[in-house]
Amino acid sequence: MRLSQFHLATVKEVPADAEISSHQLMLRAGMIRKLASGLYTWAPLGLRVLRKVEAAVREEMVRAGAIEVLMPSVQPRELWEETGRWEKFGGQLLKIQDRKEQEFCYGPTHEEVITDFARNELKSYKQLPLNFFQIQTKFRDEIRPRFGVMRAREFLMKDAYSFHLTPESLGETYKVMYDAYSRIFTRLGLEFRAVDADTGAIGGSASHEFQVLADSGEDHIAFSDASPYAANIEKAEALAPTTERPAPSAALQRVDTPTQRTIAEVSAFLGVPATQTVKTILVRGAEGLVALCLRGDHEINEVKVSHLAELGDEPELASEEQILAATGTRPGFIGPVGLPDNIPVIVDRSAAVLADFVCGGNQDGTHYTGANWDRDARVTRVEDIRKVVDGDASPDGKGTLRLARGIEVGHIFQLGQKYAEAMGAGVLDDQGKMRTMFMGCYGVGVSRIVAAAIEQRHDDAGMIWPDAMAPWRVAVCIINPKNDVAVAEAADSLYQELTQAGIDTVLDDRGLRPGPMFADMELIGIPHRVVVSGRGLEAGTFEYRARTDAEARNVTREELLAMLK
Ligand code: ATP
Ligand code: MG
Ligand code: MG
Ligand code: MG
């Protein structure tokens, strides 16, 4: 690709509304552009990266024996009624109507559609096992779309679904997919962990999440420093013995770890305008700590309750009496706290019982402010209400538990017969008897991987792509202030030679000065930079620098080709 014929639109300014590095860098590099909340256009540069991830995922799926299909993104209500998920899926399901007032949803996932396909398509145990996958756009009406494509509403997912006669066969394919996922993230150059995950509401017998390690990650994971034990925090807590931890102090505490959110995000979460007064209530109830966010001004009549069970789902609205009944505690409240626009607000979620809590911050945003405390109310650090903390003994008895943050980029599940049974998907066995199939499902957040990789790999100058994900592996930069024909031709011929050797190369022929040109190449994270200049040509060398090298060095054409092959 000749950059003069491409659309590269980098900017220097850090975008004001992007908080985490990956989101800032993707906007600065011109990889994505926001259309509306949680909806992004993939600009040409971003799409090159997205397509590389997609290709790697597709290749590993095919290698693992999965077969590609493509299902509609719009799905009829009737299918979702069969599994009961039309109601149960909650607020993330975007429901739409056609002109005949028939109801549909925009698919957040495809268990129903693939199970329908399988029940029509598969007749005999001889056809099994089968594993179908697609790479396709999903829509989830997330409560808080944020961090750009990291948590978008429309996003690209690879989802696979396997069908089996027996649970043993499901277990085998599950293992194959586990290995395929490990290969995908390894080849994409990511530092990740596969963690044991709770099967939770979906049911089934086994589940693993693939978490890219990053401090900005929304998920908490726990792993042993002396054994292969690794689990997400929910699973680790489910197994942990309930040790009584000292009650958090009622005094206002400094909160170091929770991420700070702007008032705009908090108001988006609460669904109230930023200027409106927000009251926050923390209650220690029978089930532990519950966060209640009050909307409106003075009347405590409508409260949002976030429970662990609804992590990620829409909080329920409950009356004060309902809260009293559910928690054994009458809600007290901090505030009312009038929140002006520019004050950071602390929001985080914990894995204990608390899903989300929202507090008004003082000027520097590090302390909670509060008044009118209920006797039982506590402001507490997220760590204090966890059942497991860094330094606990590992649940497998081997070593010490370490906590880290992760970004969920993949999730595999043994679903068992849940969907097949609800939808009547069966095959005939060798006795001619109808048997309900066993299913597995396997998701990869293709678009999220792009953001997660940047989150994990960047420096002050920009992104640092691993070769496998880079928009181009090599940039050939022309330094040619005097418009010397020999320099231009040498650069062009090197570009063509690399390209013909199958090396994905971009020629920076935009005629920029070295400073801005190099800054762009670093910002967009090209792994290998080659500079062609008059001086170099005289010496018979090119200047080479890997994105992670401290210094550039001079190499001959042969050395360069050998290095980049
Ligand atoms: P999360 O916990 O982050 O909300 P999830 O558990 O709801 O994700 P799954 O249903 O397991 O997601 O979907 C499979 C994969 O799709 C996830 O592992 C993640 O990588 C990706 N994904 C899910 N939601 C989003 C989103 N809103 N934006 C981008 N990618 C997403
Ligand atoms: Mg989710
Ligand atoms: Mg999840
Ligand atoms: Mg998941």
Describe this structure in words.
This protein is an alpha+beta fold and 565 residues long. The strands form eight sheets. Strands 3, 7, 8, 9, 10, 11, 12, 21 and 24 form a nine-stranded mixed sheet that branches. Helix 2 crosses helix 11 (446-456). The two termini are 18 Å apart. The model is unreliable at 243-263, 269-319 and 327-385 (pLDDT under 50). It binds adenosine-5'-triphosphate and magnesium ion (3 copies). Adenosine-5'-triphosphate (ATP) is lined by residues 109, 140, 142, 151-152, 155, 157, 312, 408-411, 443, 445, 447-448. Belongs to the class-II aminoacyl-tRNA synthetase family. ProS type 1 subfamily. Pfam families: HGTP_anticodon, tRNA-synt_2b, tRNA_edit. Its EC number is 6.1.1.15.
- DSSP E strands, number: 31
The best one-word shape is elongated
Radius of gyration: 27 Å
Bound compounds, each kind once, are: adenosine-5'-triphosphate, magnesium ion
Structural class: alpha+beta
**pLDDT under 50 segments (min length 5)?**
243-263, 269-319, 327-385
N-to-C span: 18 Å
Mean pLDDT: 80
Strand content: 25-35%
